[in-house]
Amino acid sequence: xxxxxxxxxxxxxxxxxxxxxxxxxxxxxxxxxxxxxxxxxxxxxxxxxxxxxxxxxxxxxxxxxxxxxxxxxxxxxxxxxxxxxxxxxxxxxxxxxxxxxxxxxxxxxxxxxxxxxxxxxxxxxxxxxxxxxxxxxxxxxxxxxxxxxxxxxxxxxxxxxxxxxxxxxxxxxxxxxxxxxxxxxxxxxxxxxxxxxxxxxxxxxxxxxxx
Length: 211
Prior knowledge:
Helix content is 0%, strand content 43%. It is mainly beta.
């Protein structure tokens, strides 16, 4: 039995117990514990007989709910016997060296290409998303992610939140989501035409979705 007590000390030097608590058992080793508090927390105290079995604690950002979820993309690039599948962007490996074979990559064949090139993640259940982190490839082809578009969608495929990249090329993109509504699908689209292939190509080394 899991018994933990949480007390939060805020910037106003007040202590709060959890309100509007929600406890969800994810699996035999993971528990989601959510609550509401409208202050900036500077300290958290956790007590209880189960504290000796606490291996890790994710605060504020939540768990990475994208891990090992269903991912699809518009065609898949292959090199030799290696397929750069959509699932490689949610395998838990944030290594950005493309030739370590841990990144997803859409097709480089014009006949199979789709505009825009896109990668789609479908969550097993709807989640309220707080933050999305995207790991770009760390080489001379990182520009392909420039001007990408990200959308979160509900169960009816309606856009909940959208982000358009302002032509920046970053190693890691950290996006904070203000729209606190349930999300079922996350879609990332590449709109920048590759300088060699002349159509968009999308490579994602890892996508973390916190909620």
